[in-house]
Design goal:
The protein has 410 residues and is an alpha+beta fold. The chain folds into four domains: 128 residues, 2-Layer Sandwich (N Utilization Substance Protein A, Chain:P, domain 4); 67 residues, Nucleic acid-binding proteins (OB fold (Dihydrolipoamide Acetyltransferase, E2P), Beta Barrel), CATH 2.40.50; 138 residues, K homology (KH) domain (GMP Synthetase, Chain A, domain 3); 58 residues. It contains 16 helices and 15 strands. Strands 7-6-5-8-9 form a five-stranded antiparallel β-sheet. Strands 1, 2, 3 and 4 form a four-stranded mixed β-sheet that branches. The protein has a three-stranded mixed β-sheet with strand order 10-11-12, with helices on both faces. A hairpin with a 5-residue loop joins strand 6 and strand 7. The chain is elongated. Pfam families: KH_NusA_1st, KH_NusA_2nd, NusA_N. It is found in: Cytoplasm. Participates in both transcription termination and antitermination. Belongs to the NusA family.
């Protein structure tokens, strides 16, 4: 039949995408009805019979026989003399069904049919992909590196679906080669036009949470609950865990003997330092645990303003703050409190903000980034260490030291 080539063009996609029979018939009928509307103005008096198994399709136009010279709508009515050319015994008032050949639609219409058919198949396929990945949002997914760009890595899964891993969703130490498998969570799925855009992330806290579910059976089984995850991707993370079974030590179960269970997670995240912390409703105890490995002397809470004043021995302060201020910042995010660190035995200290006449604001902000907000907290630091941890020049830090020392020598 004339339409076999057109049907075969559909079959090329059908075999690849595994479109079911009902959908196949629906798409074909929709495409042909659009063509009939363009040709005849309406399509409600046409029957379309699709046989996808044989690659066959028939179109029949139904019209009513009227007397010669009384045809008002040539699409729905046929004159008696024309009807008798089809069957000689037709009478006025009877229904006539006549097959419409593809050539009757015209060459341009047939080309448009094929293009519309391909477009409908792609649209159907993209809708299914969107639905499939929308259900996978927040879940771990594996895909292979297909193309490496400056701002993103393009991945392909086993079914050829394209997944984007943007630069800002990659761990700073990530380095991938073409053909390498990558794990992350499906962060978002959006339809842009008719094409789904699938975004993967390796920096989201949810990725670490899902890794715990995969690697630790008690978390997967629900015996251990992950209450909250906070991260500085590739640097440090804190995970609060809890168990409703007193016989289970949630921290011990997550870490394993000599860190055996958590080791694979740490390796996946580029040696990210992961603190696993026992969750508690006791805010003071939770803050104490969150600031580990520092040992706290005492805590004063201002629950109304979600602030905590923490007193530590001088040698514990750097542990509480951590490299780059990561430890104290993550502890604050985990507990929901803004944590201020004070040194035990230091009665007199001055906030750095009091020195704005002598020290520029941007310099004070550099110290604040690493958790140093008071004069003595800066003076207790090593010069070379401050040069390494901040974006300040050695001479600038020396000048700050001198300003602060003058304050206490007066």
């Amino acid at each position: 039949m004339e339409n076999i080539a057109l049907i075969e063009s559909f079959s090329e996609f059908k075999d690849d995408k595994l479109i079911d029979r009902v959908t196949l018939m629906s798409i074909l009928e929709d495409v042909f009805r659009n063509a009939l509307k363009k040709k005849y103005g309406e399509d409600d008096n046409f029957d379309i019979i699709v046989n996808p198994d044989k690659g066959d399709l028939e179109i029949w136009r139904n019209r009513v026989v009227v007397a010669d010279g009384e045809v008002e709508d040539s699409n729905k009515e046929i004159s008696l003399s024309s009807a008798r050319k089809i069957e000689p015994d037709f009478e006025v008032g009877e229904d006539v069904s006549e097959e419409v050949k593809l050539k009757d639609l015209g060459r341009r219409a047939i080309l448009a049919l094929r293009q519309n058919l391909i477009s409908k198949i792609h649209e159907h396929d993209n809708t299914n992909i969107y639905k499939q990945f929308k259900e996978l949002e927040g879940e771990i997914y594996n895909a292979e590196v297909h193309h490496i760009r400056h701002r993103a890595i393009i991945l392909l899964d086993d079914e050829g679906n394209e997944i984007v891993l943007p630069k800002d969703r990659q761990i700073p130490s990530d380095f991938f080669r073409k053909g390498e498998n990558v794990r992350g969570i499906i962060e978002s799925v959006e339809l842009k036009g008719n094409k789904p855009t699938i975004i993967m992330s390796r920096t989201a806290p949810g990725f670490l949470e899902k890794l715990f579910e995969q690697e630790i059976p008690e978390v997967f089984d629900g015996l251990i609950t992950i209450k909250k995850v906070v991260r500085v991707p590739g640097e440090k993370a804190k995970v609060a865990v809890d168990s409703y079974d007193d016989r289970i030590d949630p921290v011990g179960a997550c870490v394993g003997m000599k860190g055996s269970r958590i080791h694979s997670i740490v390796r996946e995240l580029g040696n990210e330092n992961i603190d696993v912390i026992n969750y508690t409703n006791n805010d003071q105890l939770f803050i104490t645990r969150a600031l580990s490995p520092a040992k706290i002397t005492s805590i004063k809470l201002d629950e109304e303003n979600n602030r905590a004043e923490v007193i530590l021995r001088p040698e514990e302060v750097s542990k509480a703050i951590g490299r780059g201020g990561h430890n104290i910042r993550l502890a604050g995010q985990l507990t929901g409190f803004e944590i201020d660190v004070f040194r035990e035995g230091v009665e007199e200290d001055v906030e750095l903000s009091e020195f704005t006449d002598e020290i520029e604001d941007w310099v004070i902000k550099e110290f604040s980034k690493i958790g140093l907000d008071t004069a003595k907290s800066v003076l207790e630091q090593d010069l070379e260490d401050l040069v390494r941890r901040t974006d300040l020049e050695e001479e600038t830090i020396r000048q700050v030291f001198q300003v602060l020392r003058d304050e206490f020598e007066e």
